[in-house]
């Protein structure tokens, strides 16, 4: 059997090569109804554990919260949770949760909480970062500073959401701003 994007709930290690993982599998029945099922995948000496690039891993490398693709035996116990022998486990890379942009400040709007970066003469080559009370703003020495301390022309590194609006210029929420 094969299951994609399986969540590891618990890892129990007996040795680097043996133990088990408790996973949450997404299964469907004959009526195509999808349901979640906790399953214990037993890891043995012959279980292959790798990452997406093919690098060999061992059971110590697996952690709760990781996502995996699992190949395992269709022979499952009727216990709760059901158990099966894992043939191979492929650890999936985590998706990026932030993007990082390094650019020059064009304008700072302290009234509405915006930092505009990019080319001051080309609106198509700019980005607006919305600054909230949760945004961390740091100077070159990693000291917290207010938004008012950022000036046009300064080079900043902005950690922001991986999404942006379709406006011109696009907007994205800033999580962390560092003056370089």
Describe what this molecule looks like in 3D.
- This protein has 2 domains: 2-91; 99-179, Nucleic acid-binding proteins (OB fold (Dihydrolipoamide Acetyltransferase, E2P)), CATH 2.40.50.
- Helix content is 0%, strand content 50%.
- It has strands at residues 2-13, 19-28, 34-43, 48-51, 67-72, 83-91, 99-109, 114-118, 126-130, 136-138, 155-160, 171-179.
- The chain has a 5-stranded mixed barrel with strand order 1-2-3-6-5. Strands 7-8-9-12-11 form a 5-stranded mixed barrel.
- β7 and β8 (114-118) form a beta hairpin.
- The radius of gyration is 24 Å and the shape is elongated.
- The model has no long low-confidence stretch (mean pLDDT 87).
Helices and strands, with pairings:
Blueprint: E1 2-13, E2 19-28, E3 34-43, E4 48-51, E5 67-72, E6 83-91, E7 99-109, E8 114-118, E9 126-130, E10 136-138, E11 155-160, E12 171-179
Parallel strand pairs: 3-6, 4-6, 9-12, 10-12
Antiparallel strand pairs: 1-2, 1-5, 2-3, 5-6, 7-8, 7-11, 8-9, 11-12
């Amino acid at each position: 059997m094969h299951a994609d994007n399986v969540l590891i709930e618990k890892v129990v290690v007996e040795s680097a090569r043996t133990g088990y993982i408790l996973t949450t599998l997404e299964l469907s029945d004959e009526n195509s109804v999808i349901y979640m099922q906790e399953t214990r995948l037993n890891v043995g000496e012959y279980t292959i554990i790798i990452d997406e690039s093919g690098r060999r891993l061992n059971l110590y490398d697996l952690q709760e919260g990781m996502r995996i693709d699992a190949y395992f035996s269709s022979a499952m116990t009727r216990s709760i949770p059901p158990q099966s022998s894992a043939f191979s486990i492929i650890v999936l890379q985590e998706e990026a949760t932030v993007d990082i942009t390094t650019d020059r400040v064009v304008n700072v709007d302290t009234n509405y909480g915006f930092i505009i970066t990019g080319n001051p003469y080309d609106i198509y080559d700019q980005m607006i970062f919305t600054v909230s009370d949760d945004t961390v703003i740091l100077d070159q020495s990693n000291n917290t500073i207010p938004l008012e301390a950022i000036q046009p022309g300064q080079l900043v590194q902005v950690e922001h959401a991986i999404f942006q609006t379709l406006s011109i210029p696009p907007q994205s929420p800033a999580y962390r701003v560092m003056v370089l």
